[in-house]
Amino acid sequence: MTIKERVFSGMQPTGSLHLGNYLGAMLQWIKLQETHECIYCVVDLHAITVWQDPEELRRSIRQVTAAYLAAGLDPQRSIVFNQSQVSAHAELAWIFNCVARLGWLNRMTQFKEKAGKDRENASVGLFAYPNLMAADILAYRATHVPVGDDQKQHLELARDIAQKFNNDFKGGIERAGHADGVFFPLPEPVITGPATRVMSLRDGTKKMSKSDPSDLSRINLTDNAETIARKVQKAKTDPEPLPSEAAGLKGRPEAENLVGIYAALNGQSVDAVLSEYGGAQFSAFKKALAEAAVARLAPITSEAERMMQDPATIERILADGSARAHAIAAPIMAEVKDIVGFIRS
Ligand code: TYM
């Protein structure tokens, strides 16, 4: 059997999206719509692995959806929905909780970072989070997953889970008519955005993240032009002028990050940027960077703001997406349940 190419990806509705989400993943999502069947999810089940205020969560789900649409996801061509509304995610995650091994999850670096020192007090959901992520993808038997670099380890785990499921239930899978014994495809990470690892504006060795306590560390897709300019101006740098070649950025993480962001925003290579700005002081470069960021983000921000005035339309789009997502996942789940040995009633 040949498995059809299908794209799945998602973002967490915990606060607004930032430049890392946009350059690392969203630009690829938009592009893949041209060539693939795409399913884009607002992963609200993932969000509650750490406590969320319910009203804030509802607002964030709308806000992330608005940002998806404003950035260029087409809800007619692609499926745009929120995870909690399609039961296949939670159901398949449970089955994967029973397929994945404790040792596999113990190796996940993101859990260690997020749980911090107080591991005993982290939710069980935070620990099992990568199993839910595997379920998100495989409930649709998706083959391609566009993400930023930080999701690489989770996707390797999703592949391991798919492989183990295929092995553990080989007989049943063949009896169900999959002659090659492959029920789940091994999903391919697509880590090819223009900046797959955008770093914090305050510390070039840490990734830009929603959970960083300093708002100055990131550019949000909700920031206005003035805020963007201020954040860029306050971004950490070193005292040297910019080098004229990429090799000169070695050991200068903040400079490397800012040049990388500028290149990604303008669709240029790092070398092209440095041939223009080599020898320049950061003050001049930061001015150009702020202008590039505003030019790129302001139309998205204002369109998302406009959409937020009309929550009913956002919710209609999500409901339509959920129904279409459910229509794909339901027969796959029915087959999974047969393969595992449950009785249909
Ligand atoms: P999340 O919500 O943390 O991030 C959403 C997407 O943005 C990318 N990203 C970045 N890329 C470059 N530089 C950065 N600083 C940066 N920060 C975030 C992430 O790699 C991601 O692609 N577990 C996922 C959500 C998820 C998912 C899935 C993704 C749930 N189920 C199934 C793919 C498939 C997450 O927390 O992403």
Offer a concise description of the structure:
The chain is mainly alpha-helical.
What's the SSE pattern?
EHEHHEHHHHEHHEHHHHH
**How many E-type strands?**
5
Assigned CATH class of the largest domain? Alpha Beta
Number of helices: 14
Helicity range:
40-55%
Count of domains: 2
Structural class of the helix and strand makeup? Answer: mainly alpha
Strand order of the largest sheet: 1-2-3
Mean pLDDT: 96
Give the terminus-to-terminus CA distance.
Answer: 28 Å
Which oligomeric form is depicted?
single chain
pLDDT below 50 for ≥5 consecutive residues: which ranges?
none
Examine the secondary-structure arrangement and name the CATH architecture of the largest domain: 3-Layer(aba) Sandwich
Largest sheet: 3 strands, parallel
CATH-defined superfamily of the largest domain: HUPs
Instruction: Write the CATH fold name of the largest domain.
Output: Rossmann fold
Tell me which ligands are bound.
Answer: tryptophanyl-5'AMP
Proportion in β-strands = 5-15%
Radius of gyration: 21 Å
Looking at this protein, list some descriptive labels.
two-stranded parallel sheet, three-stranded parallel beta sheet, 14 helices, binds tryptophanyl-5'AMP, mainly alpha, 345 residues, Rossmann fold, Tyrosyl-Transfer RNA Synthetase, 2 domains
